[in-house]
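# step 3/5: fold
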Amino acid sequence: MLLQEVSGALYPESHDFLRAMAELHDNKLAPALAGSWTAVNFETYFLQRLSSAVNMAAAHEIQNAISRGNRLPTAACEAWGQALPLACARRALSPLHAP
């Protein structure tokens, strides 16, 4: 089940569920959770938490995809040409930096 998109859009079913939970708590936030002036009630607090979790997960997926992907030669290797042959060769032969 998708809850929220990275853009911040909340699916209708998710919003209905969050609103129902907020109503059960009279949309009041427990004092232990208070602390941000931008999230002063139950609904805004958990919307903020959900948004943060979705964006952190997306960033983690992007980071993992980038670290597994192929690498192009660095600009330094191209600009220095033969001045850094060993460093450029190591980078080109590295499995993380395969062309």
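# step 4/5: annotate
The chain has two domains: 1-68, 70-99.
# step 5/5: archive (pending)
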